[in-house]
Amino acid sequence: MLHTPPALHHPAASRSAFVRPAAMSVKAPGKPIYVHMNGANMFLERTVFAAPGQTVIFVNEDTGGHTIIGYNPVTGATSKRFDGAVAGTKGAGHKVATYSISFKHQGIHDYYCSVHAIIAQEPGDRFVAKVRPGVHGFGDPMAGRIIVTTDPKLLAENPASTHTKILPGYFGG
Ligand SMILES: [Cu+2]
Q: pLDDT tens for residues 123-138?
């Protein structure tokens, strides 16, 4: 007889396995999720959850330009596909540059702005984003993460600002 791992007997495990097909078919890619840049050299919504196929739109409300580049935290390799750039804006009421991307499959996508951050190798051979030397900010490197998931609980936890394209008061130098 085959051994069955104890985890499979757990009620939560069997419930989630049972629910999954329905959740995937119901969860059509809905409205986009917005990630904002302002004058602080940061991505305002540093971590967001997106459904497979759901569009994530980066909105630059900063007067300076930024890039949005995916990288692999295990290898340090940057992405050819997840590779955007957004020019600065003159301010409220003026044209605002955006960059859009979506992912078909569940997964985690780390990204950084190469203008204001660098990817550095750390002990243990992991790769992390760090503040580019000489760049001003709040101390955190200009980087973020998109978690692509079908979990409705996580998808409901995005910050309220991710539902609005233009955030009033977030134009900055
Ligand atoms: Cu930047």
A: 998 999 999 999 887 7
Report how many domains make up the chain: 1
Q: How far is the CA of 68 from the centre of ligand 1 (A)?
A: 8
Determine the distance separating the centroid of ligand 1 and the alpha carbon of 59, expressed in angstroms.
12
Domain enclosing residue 104, as ranges:
30-163
This prediction's pTM? 0.82
Residue ranges with CB less than 5 Å from ion ligand 1: 66, 113, 115-116, 142
The rounded distance, in Å, linking the Cα atoms of 113 and 61 is: 15
- C-alpha distances (whole Å) from 161 to each of 2, 124, 156, 165, 168 are 50, 36, 13, 8, 10
